[in-house]
Design brief:
The protein is of the alpha/beta class. Helix content is 39%, strand content 19%.
């Protein structure tokens, strides 16, 4: 079983590399990792180069490609729409087109930002997308490109939300730094979703390959939270773990109080019921997952 992993240096990519098993479905696995710059056992691949994406698949002819790489700078995407589209839309389209000819399958990791957040109840995988900004639109276009190129039994689209982990750039690590530097922080309380730890998300990705699950799916940790709720939990658990001695006071603010270049969905909770059943993975509440990640940060 030959698997190509893109975005191997990112927070999800690192979690996937750490949790990779020796075999998939009873077959020995060869993991071919790509990063933008290469090195440390990885192949250099710029996801903004669609031709390079096609060439890589044609050269290695993998059984699966896990496309964990993405342009994730939500606000910066508003001023770099071409680059965001190249990485988030053209690359999965190119990977899917090449896999269509080589016979492989694609696991495309996507985002809750493909929804507008207006319905106020968890989004099912089969609901229509309506992104609010460039980032969400580029990811939705990537989904559409993959669907157009590959049959349903050779494509898994896995949407997730609010991804964080012990490495990389994410809300948890930013909050830990700011809470140690400042006396008070304002955090948005009127955007609701669910934090998702990279370890659990990586486990879901490997379960997709182990069981050959395809189609449209949603994965996040269990429960619901606002960014304010998430920040308060980080302060509490961070202090308990000894990462913070006197954390900043967290004040709830509104989206209007903290304007950003990109508009974000006010409610982006994902309905993961069918995916958990398909992958045979039990839910883990986001606060329990956070405690595990903070333990990893301490270690």
């Amino acid at each position: 079983m030959k698997v190509i992993l893109t975005g191997g240096a990112g927070q999800l990519g690192q979690a996937l590399r750490r949790s990779a098993s020796a075999a998939i479905g009873g077959r020995a696995m060869e993991l071919i990792t790509t990063t933008r710059s290469g090195g440390e056992g990885a192949i250099a691949l710029d996801l903004a180069d669609a031709a390079a994406c096609r060439a890589l698949v044609e050269e290695y002819q993998p059984d699966w490609v896990i496309n964990a790489g993405a342009y994730t700078a939500v606000d910066k995407a508003e001023s770099e729409p071409e680059l965001a589209h190249a990485v988030n839309a053209d690359a999965p389209g190119a990977l899917a087109e090449a896999l269509a000819s080589t016979g492989g399958r694609l696991l495309q990791v996507s985002t809750d930002f493909v929804f507008n957040g207006a319905q106020g109840s968890p989004y099912r995988p089969d609901q229509p997308v309506d992104p609010l900004g460039v980032y969400g639109a580029s990811k939705a276009a990537g989904e559409a490109a993959a669907v157009a190129a590959l049959p349903a039994d050779r494509l898994c689209l896995l949407r997730t939300s609010w991804v964080y982990g012990p490495v990389g750039k994410n809300f948890l690590l930013t909050m830990l730094r700011l809470m140690a530097e400042r006396d008070q922080l304002g955090v948005v309380a009127d955007q609701v979703g669910c934090p998702t730890a990279t370890a659990g998300l990586a486990g879901a990705c490997w379960a997709v390959l182990q069981q050959g699950v395809c189609g449209m799916h949603h994965w996040s940790d269990a429960g619901a939270a606002s960014w304010y709720d998430f920040a308060v939990a980080i302060a509490e658990l961070g202090q308990d773990a000894g990462l913070l001695t006197n954390p900043a006071r967290i004040q709830p603010i509104t989206t209007a109080d903290y304007p950003t270049p990109a508009q974000r969905p006010s409610y982006s909770l994902l309905d993961c019921t069918a995916t958990r059943e398909a992958l045979q993975l039990p839910p883990l509440h986001w606060r329990a997952a956070l405690q595990r990640v903070i333990s990893d940060v301490v270690a």
